[in-house]
Task: inverse folding
């Protein structure tokens, strides 16, 4: 039974070990585009993993096409978002609620104003450091948008890992098989029907 319905069982440790040692990693489009979206630290780690396991990585031809359709769109979007967050990042965003919290009192006494100002100075220092880090991040995204550095790095790593495209004959065959599976309601290619499952169980 376990062999016939293997998808319903948790893999054994030895099976997981074998898979981790021999499995191929097939990327979809967003796996590649996300490298352009994430922080420089995470991007560096991701590229390091790709470099380490590149002999076991495969990129379908259609993923390669879809990735290149968005190759310039995504960096532009990420840069615009980072610039907007930096431009709208104001100390008043945190100063006002902090003041309201400490100045609010219902007992006739006020929180020591000198202590409040000291607390706010600490937050100001943190804010300034955060703003400096945001400046660096915007600079990273801007440089990548203008120089295509990350896109070039990804291309150099994956250029020999692109799988051949399907021939017209193969595409026709896949479409025919898909049509048949859909008509017969066989996943993948057709969503499981709860009502059909209940009917099958009752018969």
Result:
């Amino acid at each position: 039974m376990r062999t016939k319905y293997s998808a319903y069982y948790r893999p054994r440790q030895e099976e997981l070990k074998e898979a981790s040692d021999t499995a191929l990693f097939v990327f979809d489009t967003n796996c590649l585009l996300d490298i352009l979206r994430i922080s420089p630290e995470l991007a560096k780690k991701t590229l390091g993993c790709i470099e380490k396991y590149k002999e076991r990585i495969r990129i379908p031809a259609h993923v390669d096409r879809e990735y290149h359709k968005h190759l310039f769109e995504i960096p532009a979007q990420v840069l615009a978002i980072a610039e907007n967050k930096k431009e709208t990042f104001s100390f008043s965003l945190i100063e006002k609620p902090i003041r309201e919290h400490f100045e609010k009192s219902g007992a006739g006494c006020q929180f020591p104003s000198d202590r409040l100002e000291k607390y706010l100075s600490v937050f100001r220092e943190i804010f300034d450091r955060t703003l400096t880090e945001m400046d660096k991040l915007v600079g990273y995204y801007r440089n990548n948008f203008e120089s295509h550095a990350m896109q070039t790095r990804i291309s150099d790593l994956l250029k020999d890992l692109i799988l051949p495209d399907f021939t017209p004959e193969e595409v026709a065959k896949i479409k025919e098989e898909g049509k048949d599976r859909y008509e017969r309601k066989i996943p993948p290619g057709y969503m499981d029907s709860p009502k059909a499952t209940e009917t099958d169980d009752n018969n």
Notes: The chain has a mean pLDDT of 88. The radius of gyration is 27 Å. Residues 20-165 form one domain. The chain has two domains: 20-165, 172-203.
